[in-house]
Amino acid sequence: MPLSTRYSGYDCFAWVYNKHWGDKFIPLVMPILEKFVLQYLPDGARILDLCCGAGQLAQVLVARGYRVTGIDSSEEMLHFARENAPSARFIPADARSFKLTGAQHAVLSTFDSLNHIMTLEDLLSVFRHVYAVLRKGGLFLFDLNMEAGYRVCWEDNYGIVEDDHACVVRMSYHPDERTACFDATIFRLQDGWQRSDVVLMQKCYSDAEVKSALEAAGFNDIRACTYDELWNPAELTVEAERAFFICRKP
User: For the domain 3-146+206-248, what is the CATH superfamily, name and number?
Assistant: First the structure.
């Protein structure tokens, strides 16, 4: 896939994402990562943080002694990632077409990053490229927003107001198309007030669709779970707002 086709919707959103959202998910996801991935890795294991965003997860993993590579399509996100986790390696690339030297012990993709992959064909392409960079027995963990999550959480409007910036967010879900829209208007004080508008789309996939695509890519030992009110792993049901998928390269 040509470099020009890389998903770059986060470029003008990166600075406000880094400030307000970048580390929000880390304390919630770490217990899941510990239970299903990190405890099985050797010291100094190679981990790929796919769709790494502003690098806050990479920062935590590097501090634990892992050798971390982050991949993201947004050059601006990677600017912040290099500041937040200077000891990690960061590469601009598309999750649907990336290549990487050095077999990875694990690949992680968190904070519903893969919901931005808008077709099942492209999601399968992501899974195949993840499979290619994993060593035998390597683990792949990612999370996705599910139907219940979109219906509960994505019919909302809210705003952030600070002295030098403001961000107004409008979220919507379209069940017939199974697509969701994150629409943000940002005002930033830089040589006067500057406005930028960001529209980010997501796709809702079913549990069955995701597992079938993982199997088609070659993965086995595929599991899916959600979490309870204390963020302990729990059985995945139709009421689950977010799912974690864990699988292994044979």
Answer: Vaccinia Virus protein VP39 (3.40.50.150)
